[in-house]
Amino acid sequence: MKVVLVMEDNKLTVRAVERALDIMLCFTESTELTLTEIASRVELHKSTVHRLLASLEGKGFIMRDAATDKYRLGYRLWELSANLSQEGDPGIILLPEMERLRDLLGETISLYVQDGMERIRIQAVQSNHAIRRVAPVGARMPLYVGASSKVLVAFAEPAVQQQLLASADWPAALDQQAYLQQLSDTKRAGFATSVEEREPGAAAVSAPIIDRGGRLVAALAVSGPANRLTLELMQEQAPLIMEAARRMGTMLR
After folding, report:
1. Distance (Å, rounded) from C-alpha 4 to C-alpha 186?
2. Residues 51, 52, 58, 61, CA torsion sign
3. What CATH number does the domain containing 47 carry?
């Protein structure tokens, strides 16, 4: 395979490596994909993708089902994940507290962190209700909409707000002054709510988790169907969620 070094944003990168990683990231939302589907998502010619897949398959990072001719993640990823450090990982440390909050409120509990101009769900405890808000771990969402996004931006460093507002991905239909007012309200109240802002029929309330050093670590969110998790109920439950977030913060260095 030909390896090409390129300069992007003043950083030396290896194009073949970047392309291979882009292929791996295709599986964040799908468990199985065809060669054509992968090529379409990474916007590369199928022959190029086929060569990269062959290399990934040879190292055990990708598997191909001969019966369906579809690709999926390989077992080598399990080997890597087994060596992930759990020391200081809020997704591991806070899981028991998240389960207690789920048992108390009955809805799905999620933990989000900022990653660039997105937020990513790093842990979730699903509601026991038959009709519930399913929250897959690893899901990425835009940072400009939703209760947890407001919390992550409102309690972040000012540079995060400035970068978000200046981003080319900012929706033209979203008024920045109204958004800044929402951030101000969130900072003052200590929590944020959202009703069908990002997803029809869904509602959420979120509070910041701040560690003992005063650093924002994550956003704690309670989410569920909007017809059950009403705005009035979320405001009523907000003190319980903020107290849970405060308690979680004391558990982190």
Report:
1. 47
2. negative
3. 1.10.10.10
